[in-house]
Specification:
Elements lengths: L5 E6 L2 E6 L10 H15 L6 E6 L10 H5 L12 H6 L11 H8 L4 E5 L2 E3 L1 H7 L3 E4 L4 E3 L13 H4 L6 H10 L5 H7 L4 E2 L3 H13 L3 H14 L4 H15 L3 H12 L13
Parallel strand pairs: 2-3, 3-4, 4-6, 5-7, 6-8
Antiparallel strand pairs: 1-2
């Protein structure tokens, strides 16, 4: 990742991922889109990562789309300007396009992702945050689904994330108005899980707590909710049974039981964790 636009530090099962374009409030340039996607995809097969903390360096998590950088996109060979829409809407064989992947990549990771939010979390930045499983926000957070300001609709996978957090009428109001709200208001709306004076420290502690649990069970739990939350009852119940069947008697499940009975810290095997 050029110039470390996104940094990753993995310690004790926790991946500390930071957006690192702080002079621009981590705004989403074409290069930033790519760096975020690459960071998430690099963790997808990381057996030694049990939880991820996603945060932003500097004074804010992410100010949203860097309109100026997209407007200035030009072909380096011909000097002819390229249509940024073609870049944002490009897709391969995935359901999501290039613009949607910086948010979906976190939702699709097999391990939990906790977003630590502070400062501005606008537009595309809010949608990246919504891709996390859990969001912890500073009281002075400034958050907005801001695309209406630019005459646009939110299109970075918000249909797959916001629906799980707020009622439809609330989603419409936030989108129609582009209202800016603080951490307490975001928590009241359900857009963040909770508020903390130091959201990064809180997120890291939660990630460490998760990393102490069986990685098999944690990943199975995320799979269960991601795949069954909007499924019919038969699909959901069958998935519960299927995932549980794969856990019972496995090496990490037996280790969890033994550690509890022996009143000691468990020693789980990351190599057994499924993707």
């Amino acid at each position: 990742m050029s110039e470390e636009l996104v940094t990753i530090d993995i310690r004790d099962g926790v991946a500390d991922v930071r957006l690192n374009r702080e002079q621009k409030y981590n705004a989403l340039s074409p290069e930033m889109f790519t760096a975020i996607i690459e960071a998430g995809e690099s963790l997808a097969l990381a057996k030694d990562v049990r939880a991820v903390v996603l945060s932003g360096n500097g004074k804010g998590f992410c100010a949203g789309l860097d309109m100026a950088s997209f407007a200035a996109m030009a072909d380096q060979d011909t000097g002819e300007e390229r249509d940024p829409t073609q870049t944002l809407l490009s897709r391969d064989n995935r359901p999501e396009n290039f613009a949607q992947r910086p948010a979906m990549v976190w939702k699709q990771l097999p391990m939990p992702v906790i977003a630590a939010l502070h400062g501005v979390v606008f537009g595309g930045g809010a949608q990246v945050a919504l891709g996390a499983d859990i969001r912890i926000a500073a009281p002075d957070l400034q958050m907005s689904i801001m695309e209406i300001k630019w005459g646009l609709v939110p299109d970075m996978s918000i249909t797959q994330t916001l629906r799980d957090l707020v009622p439809l009428d609330v989603a419409k109001e936030l989108t129609f108005t582009g209202k800016i709200f603080d951490g307490q208001q975001a928590a009241a709306l359900g857009l963040v899980t909770r508020v903390a004076d130091d959201p990064y420290a809180e997120a890291m502690q939660l990630a460490r707590d998760i990393a102490d649990k069986s990685p098999d069970a944690i990943r199975a739990a995320k799979t269960l909710f991601e795949e069954a939350w909007h499924a019919d009852s038969r699909t959901g119940l069958e998935l519960e049974a299927s995932l549980q069947g794969g856990l019972i008697g496995s090496s990490n499940q037996l280790e969890a039981v033994a550690a509890n009975f022996e009143k000691r810290a468990p020693a789980f095997d990351d190599s057994a964790a499924s993707g």
